[in-house]
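Hi team, as promised in this morning's meeting, here are the two structures we talked about. I've kept the exact order from the run log so nobody has to guess. The first one is mostly here for context; it's the second one we should focus on when we meet again. Sequence first, then the predicted structure tokens.
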Amino acid sequence: MHGARGRLASAWLLARWPLLGALVVTAFLLGFIGFSLAFAGQAAQSGPTSVVYLSLQLFLLQSGSVPEPVPWQLDVARFLAPATTGTAIVVALAGVFREELAEVRLRFRKRHVVVCGLGDRGTRLVRSLLDAGYRVVAVELDPASPAVHEVRRRGALVVVGDARAGDVLRRAGVPHADYVIALAGADDTNAAVAIRAGELASGQGPALTCLAHVRDPELCVLLRAEELAGGHPANYRLDFFNIYEQGARALLSDHPVVPATSSAPHLAVIGLNQLGQALVVEAARQWRAGRGAEPRRLRLTVLDPDVDRLVEQLEGHYPQLARVADVERVKTGFARLDGSAVTRGGPCAAVHVCIDDDSAALGVALRIRQCLGDSSTPVTVDLSTSAGLAGLLRRPNASGGLHPFDLFERTLRPELLLGGTYEVLARAIHAEYVEEQGRQGATAGTNPSLVSWGQLPGSLKESNRDQGAHIGAKLAAIGCGVAPLGDWDADPVTFTDVELERLAEMEHERWEAQRRRDGWTLGPKDIDARLSPFLVPWVRLDDDIKELDRQAVRNIPGLLARAGYQVVRGPMT
């Protein structure tokens, strides 16, 4: 609905003056014809200049005195002309006082998304959000930026100012928003936006989620682990994202890491820019997660002018990489690179070209495609900033097997971006709950919560998100923390019986506080009426209900592992 409304608003902004011009001409012509017919035969009144003058007066609510019967043309013009005048005045005033009117509208806007920064990435994200039906408020420092006019035309509201300032975020309606997305530029700028947003988060109603972009993938992982460990304000969730990490997942979802019939898969990555490095790590991670008892190792050929330093850096950050994959390094420039350098390790399941210069990247991809001949090996090339070059490859007669990949288009999507770490945890929590209830014989008929995530009521989704956000606080209570999953083969931490009981009681207290905050009261279970019989102290719960909380706690290490993190004992420094 909101997406259709935004498209209508955009169409009106484009067509309003031509449409009003057409209505002015129509009203004038109808008035001219009507007056000519009414005064036919009266020389003093029916002269061309007199008729023109009378027709123009219609726009000022002066319809003239004409004998009965009044021609229908004049009758229509009497209403159309002043209505057109009034509309033109309103449109003109709206243009003059656009900022003031936007401020008024913002006071009544709730449950919206605030996007901070209208650079290329921010503008693309606003487009995607509007197309998906979200209500969007954009914050941009530069009032002369062409993106300001573009997103307004598409239906977004814009606040001009520095997103690091609390008053600017307050004007953008952050206290009543669902999401704040910081894409304002440097990592420290985005971090400052996240801090200010947390200070403005409301203590009532649904939590505010802030997603801050961090360019360095390793720093992003560390910051996310720190945030998962707890310490955030009540009713506020801070998540960090990296488009290269998400881009690698999207690319490998198109071309999965799967074993050949008699050998392990062989992937080639040409260019170790940030996307290329993320691809190497994510391919190894997916191969390790999906191979089961498969003893074979993933084969990777990586090609870059600085390949030795970059691979050693990756293996230093991810020691498990060397235990999962055989990485063949090829030190080479890109100008004369051909297919023989790529296939020296054997036939490839896929070739991914990740070079920052789009023209150079496309040249390399075309040469590789020609060298591979009629091979079915897909060759992907990142052309994030060159829509024209990407368009050439999408034509019907384009080179087969060559696939353009737009990093920004694939990662700056609402379903990916808004599905951050807490969303991953929330979905996993619900999936574990459904499986556990199913093992105990429950059905959707006996338990209305046993439905897919998409069918789950919003209040229950929010409860799952809140449970995921509270993991760090529970772990801190028993002297544990959260860290990136450094060893993919390590056994997960298990809790003692004493720890389990304490954490289960904390989980119930969290659940009860969250329910009461959202307006639930004590009574027979009724999701629609927000009634629950379990809004009582821990000691008054039946043991089967306590067991649900214990099981939720037992699942914590597995839930964190799904998101790439682990429970660690001892204080985190």
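And here is the second protein, the one for discussion:
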Amino acid sequence: MHTRSAGNVEISQRNRDWIKEFKIRNGRPPRVLHIGNIANNAYNNSKLMNQAGLVSDVICYDYFHIMGCPEWEDADFEVGEIDHYNPDWRKVDLNNFERPDWFIQGDILSCLEILRSKWEKPPIDPLIRRGFRFPFYLNIDWFSSIVSFLRDKVLGGFIRIVSFLRDSLLGRWSLPIASLSRLRVLGRNYKSLSIFIRIASFPIGSILVGCIKIASFFRNTFSLSRFASFVSRKYRSFSMTKFSRRFAKEFPSRVDKVTPKDYQDYLYILPHWKNILRHYDFIIGYSTDGILPMFCEVPFFAFEHGTLRDIPDQEDRSGRLTSLAYRLAKHVFVTNFDCVEKAKILAPRRYSLINHPFDEDAAFSIDGVEELRTRLLSDLNCEFLFFHPTRQDWTKGNPMADKQNDIFLEAFVALRKAGIDVGVVCCNWGKDVAATKEFLRAKGCDPYVAWVEPMPLLPFQRMCLASDVMADQFKLGAFGGITFKAMAVGCPIITYLDEEMLLRQYPQCPPVLNCATVEDIIAAVRSLLDQPEKRRKLSADSRSWMKHYHSKAKTLDIQIDQFRLALS
């Protein structure tokens, strides 16, 4: 069990004053909408913004991966047999954790409806709202609304009357047949009952059923709303050609071009998005989700978390639209230093390098650390424990081979063969898990390895505290969530960092055991064994570095500075 309390966010005085002035002018705090939530970056960012005095919501639509759920960040639970891509949180003991109401997760239409109901009180009839927002000759949706009214109210009403006569007069209901369907709203599963009625086979009943079929046929097959929808799609498609022209202008050297096929799948949903976005002062699109506010033609910010490495260069719809979204964004927030060069190309003079949003001041009191360490040392017959949670992607031919785990694996085997009693905890994560297990088995080291499922933040940090060292990646030269989340609790790190590159981002490199080769790792471990005080110093330095150079205040100030500039 654990306790955790959110730390205060001491943003700069200039930004505190700006939020205060905004409230005076508008009668409310600034509102921010975060679209998308890969790796919980939006959740963490929004949580910090709410603590800083803004009103911040996250819409995480059609994405349910376990690592993009609030539970992964703030609940203490065992992963067990949870479906990583479709977790059912009702079956998990979350130790009383409850989701905040500002985090909206579900299918896209349900998410949009929840946000609509949040800001439009009392709810306005959608026909009136859509029909009279603009003059009818400027809004194809007005025509669609009228014919939808004729279809749903007039023909639908006739069907309901006939159904009432059939059911009430005949009274011949069969037993309902229930089928279960799932509606994903707010990250939970709700069961709805679909009732299918078998019609009594009387002559009068047959006539009434015939009337229903005829009315339904006209409603569904020859309805004017289908024609209106067709006209509306064609109209919107025509109006979207501006993005084809803009792409050609912004990227004249690219052979591939934006075509109607690239944006036709967005047309049906854009009116819903436009209705939601008007309630917010600032929009942040994560990864590729800047495409949505771009198509809605509202100002937005783009937030990348590795997005710029490969996606913009792809000659497909995602590559083209992502490139255009980052080019048209008011500002781009870059969290990976190796993506800076691409940001310079896509958003020249309109990007800022920021830390991944994270609360380094959250207070932790994690129970069970000593018990966990004692058990692992016994099970793995070791005296020095590694934690290697990094994704297993390192073999030749693997397109995701960007971790170079083999350097660590070879060092681990060499240490064990040299008579040093080391053990390691690895995660079942990555395309090369099987290759890693086979490598360790062939070297006779599999008895000294424990395999666990990827861990939520709190169990992850418990494992960090129970280990002597956390080993990360050995190829990229940059660092991500695994490293800074371990440093936050003072866990010494072995990894490879490109110090020249990082010193362009930070005044001081993170205090890690910087290793690029097998020999480097072996030497680093021997130094920790020979000098126990070095590990204690690394632990203290890690926490201090996080506070000074990876602070949540700095991360927020950079973003709020851009909010201020956008309004000025």
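Starting points for discussion:
The chain has a mean pLDDT of 83.
The longest strand covers residues 177-185.
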